[in-house]
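Hi there,

I know you've been waiting on this one. I reran it after we fixed the sequence typo, so this is the corrected version. Both the input and the resulting structure follow.
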Amino acid sequence: MPRYRLDIEYDGSPYAGWQRQDGPHSVQAAIEQAIQKFCGDTVSLRGAGRTDAGVHATAQVAHADLTKIWPADTVRDAINAHLHSAGETVVVVAASVANADFDARFSATGRRYLYRILNRRAPAALEKHRAWWVPKPLDADAMHAAAQRLVGLHDFTTFRSAQCQADSPVRTLDGLDVSRSGDLIEVRAAARSFLHNQVRSMVGSLKRVGEGGWNADDLTAALAARDRVACGQVAPPDGLYLVGVEYGTESPRTP
């Protein structure tokens, strides 16, 4: 059975998250249904990141095994046609034939997330559901300086959802950068893998630094507490995007 890699983008606002579930509609289910309508195959799509309800992606990666070899462009275009006709806010940007041992989740060597904050007095219009509106002025430089306290190997229990199913709270955060351009503040996080709600939890605590309620030492103390209660506000899902997945030397093949 040929294995296809799918590079995907989506507006996560209408969905209950990436993962298929009973009841609420998911991104995974939307694509699986489109594949079934395209070629008749019932597939179980595996994604690189299980984004939560309302979270977006510009570079999600998934793989699916089909029963027949199709040209990659046909796979992309056919899936998109059925997604479009169903009114889904999901697009397959690219499709390619991958090696049989490629796994969108377990072959990944790195993931990158972007969190967007609209920092101005006026509420969002065009950015509604695509950024966190924070009307109180934030000091992005102070947020960036404090963020460096979280980079490296740490126990991130404080910044981990109580529902997180990871075996260990220990992760290596490769980068956490905060920058401002006009009214928009961007927080970029990079790691091999993240805990459930880790990025949103870190962003919420960095917001507290930006407002002046915390300083860098307070953020360090919150990390050291290894206690969910020590975390600042968890940022809403609206501003979070999965923007990159790395796979080392793995390269897709085209038929």
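Quick highlight: The chain has two domains: 3-107, 110-243.

Best,
R. S.
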